[in-house]
Amino acid sequence: MTHPSDDRARLGLRESATFDRATIAAIHRAARTGVYDIRGWGAKRPLPHFDDLLFLGASISRYPLEGYRERCGTDVVLGGRNAKFPLHLDIPVTIAGMSFGALSGRAKEALGRGATEVGTSTTTGDGGMTPEERGQSKKLVYQYLPSRYGMNPDDLRKADAIEVVLGQGAKPGGGGMLLGQKISARVAGMRTLPEGIDQRSASRHPDWTGPDDLAIKIGELREITDWEKPVYVKVGATRTYYDVKLAVHAGADVVVVDGMQGGTAATQDVFIEHVGIPTLAAIPQAAQALRELGVHKKPGGVQLIVSGGIRNGADVAKALALGADAVAIGTAALIALGDNDPKWSAEYRELGSEAGFYDDFQDGKDPAGISTQDPELEARFDPVEGGRRLANYLRVLTMEAQTIARACGKRHVAGLEPEDLVAISIEAAAMAGVPLAGTDWIPGGNGGR
Amino acid sequence: MEQVTETFDLRATPLRQVNAALHAPGLSGRYIVENPQGAHSVAVGLNSPVKVEINGNVGYYAAGMNQRAEVTVNGSAGTGVAENMMSGMVWVKGNASQSAGATAHGGLLVIDGDAAARCGISMKGADIVVGGNIGHMSAFMAQAGRLVVRGDAGEALGDSIYEARIYVRGSVKGLGADCVPKEMRAEHVEELTGLLKAAGFEDDDPLSYTRYGSARTLYHFHAGNSSVY
Amino acid sequence: MCGIVGLHLRSPGLYPRLGELLAGMLCEMEERGADSAGIAVYGDPVWAPAGRGTISLLEVREPAPEVAAALGAELGTEVAVTPLDGTYLLNASADSLALLAAARKLYPDVVVGGFGEDLAVLKGVGRPRLLADSWGLAAAQGWQGVGHTRMATESAVTASGAHPYAVGPGQCLVHNGSFANHATIRRELRAAGVRFDSENDTEVAARFVASELAKGKDVEAALKELIGTFDGFYTLLVSNSESFAVVRDAIACKPAVIAETGDWVAMASEYRALAGLPGVRQARIWEPEPEVIYAWNR
């Protein structure tokens, strides 16, 4: 029988902040299994994030735009620097790379449907391009990863953009991971792996290491595709200022920075929680790097896409204000599709979890049919309905960002700037480079920005 | 010898123009590329049953993502020759640098001389035949395909190998995790004979080769594997 | 990240062409790094006349004649100076270590590009091609040269951040790659009294090698010690008045090509930097093995 908290207090029971129950369970698990804990999702611990920033809306000195009549644009052009065919998106929210394998085929289809309905792009993941996704996604970004699973020039030529992935926010320095229960016949075929094995993946690219050799690799990809497509370079947020500069020097048309809140379908818990920096700390570094190179928010410049914990239109607006040209959503998109829906509560409990807590994407037992390869579970997921839900969510994100932008007097969400923001914590002020609300103070002296 | 359809001189013609010409849909014929002087990305992304001969040494990624074409490098090749090749053939008359045939899915890569480190890294179904030696970490995470080495292999051969098959005639400095010598059965002798013949080495005795492949003990994560990690 | 090049001439007949050949090699590596460049030339009669100690000073505020006069007064002997686009090449009838001591005494904050008995080091910010032109590199002569083109990684773009790091008499080091534990090694060297000019990881390697050489080790032993101490990916070219050595780390992801003929030995990050060397078609060309030290002595 467990004691309610009043009783615990009376009994003088006190939980250790260092060795709390979750930590105790983790140590027990390690002792029992001898293997690290693998899970999905992104960093779950509290971190300085967009919630610690607030917008300075209209006032006597700043006038708002009317809703509806007075337009607030949301379109964005990505990759105009070198490509014959840049990407024109209607909204500054894209769907981040998630693999077929990590996700079910139906989930990938839903992402394509929803994104296309509102005029934005989706991104393939570590398993390659499926015909369903290419068929459903009007604009498809094709990831080029260390594993090169399924990579082939036919798909490269079919893509609308190429994203060279060095890393992702959940595990900067780690490769893809997919466990045997999700390596179905189809997934195995696409990845040239035996069915049912646990996939081991490389952390580095097989034929280049470092920005000097990346420059040559980007040259090759452009030559193969006749300079038609924008080349993105994606990094997990670590030494972001230097990484963004090097990515630009190496030839990136677009840089994608994924903060530690960025999700994954499977990796070690310690990697997720203890490697990489918060999205908030990464964006100003990226923007500064681009500004110093003279390529930020300029025609023919390099665009910045930010991901890692984008949840609502306020997050979108804040990311744009701090310097992003667009954001990408991963975890949020899956939630929009139906992930962690309370209607599956009983099943989550059977799996040892709960709605709102479920992160065992690596197990492939997702009751919502999204992060599974089990055909019975996948059958529960309706991709048409899922696409509609995603489109709805993307519209809400966009309208919320527009509402905020209008309140700040902007004709286009791209007009949002750091000076529209203040912080309500010292950490957020320092990381975001904006003043603490009610003061002029930016801790760390704005780091020279 | 087939008539030359067109000759390109990289000293006079920009690489973009040469590759664009070689990308023309429905292309056929025989093409020569002169004076590469170590240029990168020569003859990449080919997708027609053409013959391309490159006279000189090439830089990185020559014949990258090759489909259907037969590319000959009359010289040595830099990093990643024939990387991600899907089909067709690439023949390097000299030596090849790192990551030769990396992640290639199909086709045949022949290197008359030596290949350096990471030969056949992450290969996904291609065939690679090396006349000389290969460097360290070759066939790292090699998933499928065949690698034949007439000379010696460096350290950590076949580390983390999946289902690719490796045949080495010379010595192996060291085997990587989960890579072990395997029995040469009749089907392997036949396979090796075919590969050697396709690469122009039909006088080699297949029985002088040792076969290496995966012990398949790393196919599932469990505590017992932690020492390998 | 970077491009590195090195040329060691065996035939005196080629000495007049050293600068021209080195300039060609350097410019081929511009795409690997266009932020800054540095070169070191051994044996140019104007830059580093025979029989005289030499020193290169970077980013000096005072005019060149004033610096030469001040050093001359300090050393009690005439000091000649050639100013070249932000670098002062000084030489005197004195030991290069004496020149170094005098320069440090008079200008405590000056960045020393290099010093030795026949060594000239030039470094600058900007495109390698333009720097080579402004230095007049193509006209330089000598028996050995190294060069580096830089795409800055974790440190800022300044001339002092460019390689080669020439931190011991006649010694140069150029590096392609990125070390991972240099901050700790730097702390240890600082604690032993070594002074650093930059936050650059390569400088740590150069000062480490210099300190091992100062302990009496030869280049090969010093590099063996480096291999055992430094984490990271690296191709290193280390030169001094007697030798030219190349080494790569155990994983050897960063590129390296060596070419050798009876007339010269050359090393570069990419073959195309070697493609213009005389007789390269007949050269023996190979890639260095990981953790093997390849050295040629004069």
Number of strands of chain B: 11
Number of domains of chain B: 1
CATH superfamily of chain A: Aldolase class I
Q: Stretches of chain A where pLDDT falls below 50 for ≥5 residues?
A: none
Tell the overall outline of chain B. elongated
- What is the CATH top level name of chain A? Alpha Beta
Residues in β-strands, percent of chain B: 15-25%
How many helices of chain A does DSSP assign?
A: 16
Which strand order does the major sheet of chain A show? Answer: 5-13-12-10-9-8-7-6
Q: Examine the coordinates and then state which fold CATH places here, giving the name of the CATH topology of chain B.
A: Pectate Lyase C-like
The strands making up the biggest β-sheet of chain B line up spatially as: 1-2-3-4-5-6-7-8-9-11-10
Oligomeric state: heterotrimer
Most extensive interface, residues per chain? A-B, 33 and 45 residues
* Second CATH tier, the architecture of chain B: 3 Solenoid
Short précis:
Chain B is mainly β and 229 residues long. Chain B contains two helices and eleven strands.
What brief labels describe this structure?
heterotrimer, A: 449 residues, alpha/beta, TIM Barrel, two-stranded antiparallel sheet, 16 helices, 14 strands, B: 229 residues, mainly beta, 11 strands, 9% helix, elongated
Question: Care to describe what's here?
Answer:
The complex is a heterotrimer of chains A (449), B (229) and C (298). Chain A is α/β, with parallel strands linked by helices. In chain A, helix 10 packs parallel to helix 16, helix 11 crosses helix 15 and helix 12 packs across helix 15. The longest helix of chain A has 25 residues. The mean pLDDT of chain A is 95. Chain B has a single domain, classed as 3 Solenoid (Pectate Lyase C-like), CATH 2.160.20. Chain B has an 11-stranded mixed sheet, with helices on one face. In chain B, strand 1, helix 1 and strand 2 form a beta-alpha-beta unit. The radius of gyration of chain C is 18 Å and the shape is globular. Chain C is of the alpha+beta class. Classes of the chains: A alpha/beta (449), B mainly beta (229), C alpha+beta (298). Chains A and B meet through helix 5 and helix 7 of A and helix 1 of B.
